[in-house]
Amino acid sequence: MYIYHGARALSDFRKEKLIADIRRLQPAVKNIEAQYVHFVDAKKLSIAAQKQLKQLLDYGSPFSGQPKGELFLVTPRVGTISPWSSKATDIAKNCALTAVRRVERGVAYYIQSAKKINRQVVTALLHDRMTEAVLDSLEAAEVLFKESKPKPLVEVDILKEGKRVLASANHSMGLALSVEEIDYLYDAYKKLKRNPTDVELMMFAQVNSEHSRHKIFNAKWIVDGTEQEKSLFQMIKNTYKKSHKNILSAYSDNAAVLKGPIAERFFADPKDRIYRPHKELVHMDIKAETHNHPTAIAPNPGAGTGTGGEIRDEGTAGQGSKPKVGMAGYTVSNLNLPGAKRPWEKNYGKPGYMVSPLDIMIEAPLGASGYGNEYGKPTTLGYFRTYEQEVGDQMWGYHKPIMIAGGIGNIRDEHVDKKPVPSGSLIIQLGGPAMLIGLGGAAGSSMQSGQSSEKLDFASVQRANPEMQRRAQEVIDYCWSLGKDNPVLSIHDVGGGGLAVALPEIVHNAGLGAVFELRDVPNAEPGMAPMEIWCNESQERYVLAIAPKDLGKFKAICEKERCPFAVVGKATKEKRLLLHDSYFDSNPINLPIDVLFGNPPRMKRTFRSQRIRRKKLTVKDIDIVEAAESVLSLPAVGSKKFLITIGDRTVGGLVRRDQMVGPWQVPVSDVAVTATAITSQTGEAMALGERPTLALISAAASVRMAIGETITNITAADIGEISDIKLSANWMAAAGSPGQDQQLFEGVKTAGEEFCPALGITIPVGKDSLSMRTFWQEDSRQKSVVSPLSLVATAFAPVIDIAKTLTPELQNTDSRLILVDLGAGKNRLGGSALAQVYNQVGDQAPDIDPEILRNFFNLISKLKKDGLILAYHDRSDGGLFTTLCEMSFASRLGLDIQLGNLHGGTLQKLFNEELGAVIQIRKKDEAKVLSVLEKALGKHVYVIGSPRDGQKLIISQGAEIIYQNSRKELERLWADTSWRIQKLRDNPKLADQEYAAIADDEDPGLFAKENFQPSTKKYRAKPEVAILREQGVNGQVEMAAGFSLAGFDAVDVHLTDLSSGRVSLDDFRGLVACGGFSYGDVLGAGEGMAKSILFNSDLRQMFKNFFARPDTFSLGVCNGCQMFAALKGLIPGADHWPRFVKNSSEQFEGRFVLTQVKESPSVLLRDMAGWRLPIPTAHGEGRAEFSEPAMVKASLKNKLVTLQFVDNYGRVTESYPANPNGSPLGIAGLTSTDGRATIVMPHPERAFLTKQLSWHPAGWSNYSPWFKLFQNARDFVG
Fold it and tell me: Would residue 994 show up in a list of annotated catalytic residues for this protein?
């Protein structure tokens, strides 16, 4: 083992925080230093190889501390391989360090203390026990590379020991089998006259788990002694039976497929790899998936792999699809924020093996967003709710959280259905290797928390490697781009249960059996037992079937993309699963396939109906000022910005409406919208709805309101008919807990048999998680927390015109605000935010009539089509009061509100959460709009006020002002929880800066200063520009689109194309390095890709020659900027370029900010000097770090800085978040001395079309001023 010391592992603020945390338990601690240490397992390395390895591992900010004190070495958990290791090892191998077997990294903490340190106490603070270990010496890290001989197969001897040994295995292996299933297996193996293997038992448990088989949804239900005609799943399918217009695939694949429009879809033509628009049908595939159990025990990888699994579901629809845009949502118990515990929060406790709700909300969003960022899928929608309350004798809450991920992909018409798989087809695993992680997760997630052992929970922890998944998706994208020549016949993701579920399913669905070879499964841990190889849930894997004749073609695609694959088996006519193990010369599986997929006893669910009785809500002593403050600070109501800015919302270049609205970028959008293709006006919309607290009063009302909320949200988009909306229904319940089977049954029946059919809406996809109960022992007392019935309804719909999407941003014009009250004046407060913050529930839940909801959708759609609505915001959590506040925040306008015409008391008017919306209309249109609305909705339509000058919300009842407050005070209350979590998670100084900016009433917001005129030049030739990528790069398509529209032939060039000699840079006039996470940024952002060039003599010379040619230009954006900066030694006149290191916030920053273009020789920014333009940023390591401080000012003086971040006043800034990364003097881009090489951290390729921008000035044409950059490139080439 070789040891290499590395960079500083803790920034100043993280070091200070850690010292403070440790001193609370170990007051004698004086100082802590932390340094990355690299451990390399390799054959004997030459001196030259060791020197090269040392250079490879040189990244990040240098460590300047002293390694003094007691050592605590934090490494990945022994027996696991970290995602960091996988990617770093790839880089080493691609740099010709073939003797390197594995590179791993740890953090060496050196702790100085005046007294003896309690290692157990400190260790607990330094590591995540689910994913990490703590060692006491550097040499002890040798254990990370210890290899064991393969463990043997185990048989369970039922022939001798009988049925009891099966029951014992069920418990010890965490199989979660029912008594009936144990009987079924015992009888099946008795007939086969042999003992089952542990592989077969674990496989059966995963295939037949609640997670995989949805046994409760397929159960026979007996209600009040009467057997019901339909299962829950049949009730859901009833929506399809009643209305299946434009649904191409439902219930039979990993995602549902909806009919899409004809559009010019932009991708690289497989014949010549030139990016072109392809006019074709572009269908939508939709999915939402929960990952609750893993998120409860290890939030970051749990939520990350939840996002990854949902992405794979989208990508494996039909013969392969392209995931496009995503969402993420979270429901947890009370946060109990340090120093800000809310009056309604009580500390009920939790089991020791589970993570606290606050830690979940710090870590899980980082995992989910981080996965999407690195993979390259924008996250544009979500929700966040906390709930924990004792009602009667039951504690309700979400100790087992809801973590939901979902999204939209696109699929070609000819690939919607999987093709028949003939006998003899090759069965392939695509993606990463097997590792001992996530074992038994499908069964584990089917258990109530506390039912399985803590040891088994350890086994079900997963790990995320999105960069590997990106590689696999690039292979899938290449395959579907081949059209009718797509080699993929059928494809499945590897998710719950691992290969043990995916491989049998792909052949069973084809009506076949298969023969597999265990040792052909790629395996990173040779010591695993056969059961562990077959059943582990290592992520980023797919299984697919291809014809033997297509193997060569498929292999070439995988080699181009550097994506591992293996032929693991062959489909057979005989319906038998045979798994051979060449190492032990045994058959771990030899089973008729119908034993696995046959008919284990169907579950029965029985309940007697009980009526819920709740106390009446009491509001008479509630003060309106206190109520407003409390409601705005409730997480379900307040700002979700801390969840949003850590995610990339612009990658792909197709997002047209994200969460952030207006010149002040306030997260209040009702809907997410994407374009079908780069230049399309058509698109897709996505929205959410969930109202679980209402289930404590009425399951049926809770379901109607969840679906209703998602419809009032998605109504903001331009959708043709309400029947165009399709739902993913994700059901959470504590099945088996008192009263909860009834709640589940009534909720599903309401959705499937009544409400959705009445609306003409279909539920073609969904999922269930029905073990939402946590129980544990505390001081001899049995405790439990049960989650209410929770439906998360995600709506998807095709959009006619993406430009007609409405937002809550008010227009500063003579106008009126109209409340459309779909609750018909009933003002029911049950289950509301107001009830929750006063520790009540109430006995009357808000509700919605489907006919009223349908009329609302139709009327708003008509008014929108006629151009009569200026702004729109639905009424939901927090009621009318919150709706008005959020519209004020987005526009920084005051409001004069008059409640005199509304029914009920003041609190009821302001805080009821009946469905509805507030719309802004022009004053001159008032009579016309009221006439249209009242004709269909009756008198429950009210003119409630208008915008006013200044930033004050004034609410009156007749002549009396009953409430008034400033916009800034209200917004600070609304943003409080987000700010506090951001302070705990990120750099607290910067969190304070962002929070303080809310109070600046003079802030003018985003603006633009430019004189752009689109070029009218016509060129006959199309010169070629190389759109360069490497594994992990994800921004190539939008980059190619910009250059293609400017008159280039943009060519897809992978680094393997250059290293193999298939392509040469000599053939190109331009070279563009795109955004993304090459190699996951593990050895410095962009530096792994750069070093794979620098340490390859042929590549190094090719790039050097290209940069030296005077007829070429080059552009590096984001990851490409970082990569080119690391190549500056090859680029003439680039010696002054910095390296790019972690943002000052130490988080990924997805922001929409202002930059000013500086006068410089850059050929790409010619004639743009002095322009100030909004632009998206999306990076985690964008802070420019110059080798000498003097070089900052020298670069400015020499006019070699191209872009600087400026604030909303137009001033160059280092303040956050206007400067999102902390670069000195706001430096955001530079150029070479001759101007031919330009690097920028922001993303012009995601901003060259006006409709790509989250906000833009009125009057901009189709092309934004950023298109000038691409036109300048074309002009330079001539």
Answer: no
Report the alpha-carbon distance of residue 113 to residue 22 in Å, rounded.
11
Identify the H or E element spanning 61: none
The domains found in the chain, sorted by start residue, are 2-145 (no CATH), 167-218 (1.10.8.750), 611-698+711-720+801-975 (3.90.650.10), 1024-1277 (3.40.50.880)
CA–centroid distance for 1120 within its chain: 23
Question: pLDDT tens, 303-355?
Answer: 999 999 999 999 999 999 999 999 999 999 999 999 999 999 998 999 988 99
State the Cα–Cα distance between residues 99 and 49, nearest whole angstrom: 9
Mapped onto helix, strand or coil, the DSSP state of residue 674 is: strand
Q: Please name which of 1061, 1174, 383 lies closest in space to residue 730, comparing C-alpha atoms.
A: 383
Is the predicted pLDDT of residue 834 greater than 80, yes or no? yes
CA distance 993 to 1010: 29
Which residues, at least 6 apart from 779, have a Cβ–Cβ distance to it below 8 Å? none
Q: How far is CA 1121 from the centre of its chain?
A: 25
Read off the pLDDT of residues 695-721 as tens digits, 9 standing for 90 and up.
Answer: 999 999 999 999 999 999 999 999 999
Crossing angle of helices 357-375 and 299-315, rounded to 10°: 40
DSSP assignment of 269-283 equals: -TTT-BEEEEEEEEE
**494's tokens:** 């590897």
Q: C-alpha 401: how far from its chain's center?
A: 16
Q: Which two tokens stand for residue 34?
A: 């932390």
**Active site (annotated) includes residue 1245:** yes
Query: Measured at the alpha carbon of residue 827, what is the angle toward residues 822 and 833, in degrees to the nearest 5?
Result: 105
543 has pLDDT over 80: yes
| Residue 10 Cα distances to 22, 34, 106, 239, 1052, angstroms | 15, 6, 13, 54, 39
Nearest CA among 351, 533, 342, 340 for reference residue 429:
533
Annotate 1050-1083 with DSSP letters as a single string: EEEEEHHHHHTTS--GGG-SEEEE-SB-GGGGTT
95 catalytic? Reply is no
Q: How confident is the model at residue 72 (pLDDT cuts 50, 70, 90)?
A: very high
DSSP single-letter state for residue 902: S
Residues 6+ apart with CB under 8 A from 710: 687, 688, 689, 727, 793, 794, 795
Q: Which amino acid is at 32?
A: I
Residue that has been written with the tokens 């990508």 in this structure: 315
- Out of 492, 580, 873, 1243, which one is annotated catalytic? 1243
3-state secondary structure 410-460: EEEHHHCCCCCCCCCCEEEEEECCECCCCCCHHHHCCCCECCCCHHHHHHC
Rounded mean pLDDT of 988-1009? 98
What are the structure tokens assigned to 1137, written together?
């370029």
Distance CA 1035, CA 694 (A): 43
Q: What is the pLDDT of residues 1060-1097, one digit of tens each?
A: 999 999 999 999 999 999 999 999 999 999 999 999 99
CB of 219 closer than 8 Å to CB of 231: yes
- In the predicted structure, residue 453 carries a pLDDT above the cut 80: no
What is the pLDDT at residue 459?
Answer: 63
Residues in CB range of 1162: below 8 A, 6 or more apart: 1202, 1231, 1235, 1238
Q: Read off the amino acid at residue 773.
A: R
Catalytic residue among 293, 1118, 1121, 1146: 1118
Please state the separation of Cα 626 from the chain's center in Å.
Answer: 35
Cβ–Cβ < 8 Å for 786, 395: yes
> Tens digits of per-residue pLDDT, 854-891?
999 999 999 999 999 999 999 999 999 999 999 999 99
Nearest to 62 by CA among 7, 109, 4, 5: 7
The residue whose two tokens read 């929506």 is 239
Computed from CA positions of residues 386, 392, 395, 398, in that sequence, does the dihedral angle turn out positive or negative?
negative
Longest dimension (CA), the chain: 90
Separation of alpha carbons 953 and 912, rounded Å: 19
